[in-house]
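In response to a reviewer's request, we include the raw inputs and outputs for one of the modeled complexes. The two entities were modeled together in a single run.
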Amino acid sequence: QQNVQQSPESLIVPEGARTSLNCTFSDSASQYFWWYRQHSGKAPKALMSIFSNGEKEEGRFTIHLNKASLHFSLHIRDSQPSDSALYLCASLNNYAQGLTFGLGTRVSVFP
Amino acid sequence: AQTIHQWPVAEIKAVGSPLSLGCTIKGKSSPNLYWYWQATGGTLQQLFYSITVGQVESVVQLNLSASRPKDDQFILSTEKLLLSHSGFYLCAWSLGGARAEQFFGPGTRLTVL
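The model returned the following structure tokens for the whole complex.
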């Protein structure tokens, strides 16, 4: 059974700062990794995904995956108040079964 | 364009009463369908998934059941609600395949008193 751990639980950052979120997973056979963002009271929405070791950048967002260390991360450059949300990392082992989510990191960006 | 609709938007129910939540996906045939539950401020816990009409697999046991009566419809229900059933219920769909993104519906907020 996959176990996904996130850290930190919460973050408060000033506008313009870099935000870093971490995720570790327990199953070394995991292959597919996602970051979802959920604004308060809304449905989660996929932010980015990564399927092989390395780095992927989209705009202000960068994700890293290191399968050997069972670790993947999300970095937000030039954080904005609109980035304030719950960030959920997830891994997918069996596409039919769906995603295993971490507990989430609540990010608050203040002006 | 694909749309996902959940009903009702919110429910307040008494302990011991029955419950039925629904989810409809339009614009996509034969999607994989999922039910997730999210406690207030908590993570998403997958409850059920279905890859075809009439077939539903349970992931966790929470005294809930699910059915897929039509290709585009997924129903979550129970005959007797518990206080612990309170939370945010989310339906999601994907095309299937390991790299397929899951798209979530707007959710139903359930309060059990």
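As requested, we also summarize the result in words. The interface with chain A takes residues 32, 34, 36, 42-46, 49, 51, 57, 59, 90, 92, 94, 96-107 of chain B (CB under 8 Å). The mean pLDDT of chain B is 92.
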